[in-house]
Amino acid sequence: MLLLSVLLLMSQAKGAHLECGIRPIFEGGPRYSRIIEGMEAEVGEFPWLVSIQARNEHFCGGTIINEWWIVTAAHCLFNEELVPTDLSVVLGTGNLQSPSLDIKGVSSIIIHKDFKKPSMDNDIALLLLNSRITFSGLKEPICMPRKASPATWRECWVAGWGQTKTDDRNSMKTDLMKVPMILMDWEKCSKLFPKLTKNMLCAGYENESYDACQRRASRLHHRV
Predict the structure, then answer these.
(1) Torsions phi, psi for 187 (to 5 deg)
(2) Phi (first) and psi of residue 183, to 5 degrees
(3) GO molecular-function annotation terms (predicted)?
(4) Residues of the chain with CATH 2.40.10.10
(5) Does domain 155-223 have CATH number 2.40.10.10?
(6) What CATH code would you report for 46-129?
(7) How wide is the angle at C-alpha 45 spanned by C-alphas 42 and 51, nearest 5°?
(8) In sequence order, what are the residues at sequence separation of 6 or more whose Cβ sits closer than 8 angstroms to the Cβ of residue 88?
């Protein structure tokens, strides 16, 4: 099943959009709109980020990797009652209350065969969309590293939609939020978190009010 999934992913990618990681609308620069425990993302800053929804309610984030595929966390989809037709993917916006949303259906869910929920090891999954993404300045694929070298990575952003305060449902943000993180030494981090596996990264921030693990928050790490 895994081999079939990889072959399908490769076949769908042939003749695909050749550029990745580009942000034609986002101009960069220190234009942050700082809010409590995070920052609002600028328009077009994370054009590969999508909202995964069930019954029109956001519950997890995902990332565009090509015209057909979204990568996300396996724990978001690890539910026997969840079927592809329950899901929709919202693309090209940082505001989930925008009057004009680009919404795609899902035709297939593929969860890593070795995903282990108690430890969250191999926490990765793929969604196959039911129609092709038309790329624009607000919808672009992220670059996938040809060879992962986490030992050389230093900084990243955690971005997504979710609660900005622990156990406060009223703090749920419909605007895309971002938090800067520093990647920490794996060996040191594993002493603090014994369940950490070699398939995981460890990231933190000196301001402890910044966090990416609030209940119902769904965020993805994007390396700088």
Answers:
(1) -60, -45
(2) -75, 130
(3) serine-type endopeptidase activity
(4) 46-129, 155-223
(5) yes
(6) 2.40.10.10
(7) 95
(8) 52, 53, 54, 56, 103, 104, 105, 106
